[in-house]
Amino acid sequence: MVNVEQVEILKVDSHLEPDEVINNLITLSAESAADVLVECLKSCSTVKLSSGVFEQIAIPILLKDAVVMILWITSEHFSAQDVQMLKGFSKVYENFLSIVIESETDPLTGLLNRKAFLPRLIKVARLIKEELDDYAVTPQESALSSKRYWLCIFDIDKFKVINDTFGHLYGDEILIDFVKMMKATFSELDSMFRFGGDEFVIIMSKRNKAEMMKLCEEFSHKLSIHHGKEVQVTISMGIIEINSVEESSELLMKADKALYYVKETGRNNIGIYEDLIQDGSIVPLKIEDDIEIF
To answer: Residue 39 belongs to what H/E stretch?
Structure first.
């Protein structure tokens, strides 16, 4: 059995630039790990280096041929048997990761599915609470950002008519093109979900209200242009600001209430729950304590 000094599974953040990825990995490990981690990233293969006092090994964990994590271990010495054992462990972890991701992915569009939604929304609520707590403790040092997280729920207007008129295969093509447009419009920092059929949800990363609205309107406009000559594709969207107080099910139901209002009043529009309450378009949603959505 290998006698390890230090072992870490380091996440490779695909949202960062290459130099930032390296700096982040070094921060999570040690300055002395820079060479072995850089070589592991570049070669997408196992790398072992000796610094005289101890040896290091970096083993990539791959998903779709991309390094998503690195198993980094230090020891006085790695035998060939040790290396094989560690590579075997990383392969088991890689397979487990693939299974988890597959279980959270919509097979048609490649977006996250409904199962993946709740943990991510809870994570965002936790981040919001931490920011508020920091501000409460040290208001001079922790300025509250004017940017917020947003929950957007939307579907394609009269999608059933498209399916019934042109067939389900054409409907699937519309959905695939629709998702391509989503990915081209929204950021990788935004979590995008297909709940089923033509129902989609986005947990939008921090933006102020004007930025959020501009992006949603841009997405809606792109859709009408892209499909205008063949099929008129429009969307109705309901939005609510995410907070750390309400349950995930409450937030989703309130965004859905805003969506329902948009669909009842002509479709092809965007409704923000708080604004609709304020101008009297809808009444506040009363949540029963025993209602469970998930």
So the answer is: helix 34-43
d(CA 233, CA 157): 7
What pLDDT is recorded for position 227? 66
Indicate the burial class of 48 (C-beta count within 10 angstroms; 0-12, 13-18, 19 or more): middle
Can you name the residues that pair with 148 across neighbouring β-strands? 207
- To which residue do tokens 């923000």 refer? 272
Q: In the chain, pLDDT over 90 holds for what percent of residues?
A: 60
Rounded Cα distance between 44 and 41, Å, is 5
pLDDT attached to residue 288: 66
Predicted TM-score (pTM) of this structure: 0.77
Backbone angles phi, psi at 189, to 5 degrees: -80, -10
Q: If phi over 0 gives left and psi between -120 and 50 gives alpha, with beta otherwise, what is residue 67?
A: beta
- Pick from 59, 86, 85: which is nearest to 72 by CA? 59
- Rounded Cα distance between 266 and 257, Å, is 15
The pLDDT value recorded for residue 11 is 87
Which of 282, 272, 205, 208 lies closest to 237 in space, CA to CA? Answer: 272
231-236 average pLDDT score? 89
The span from the CA of 198 to the CA of 104, in Å, is 17
Alpha carbon distance 95, 77 (integer Å): 27
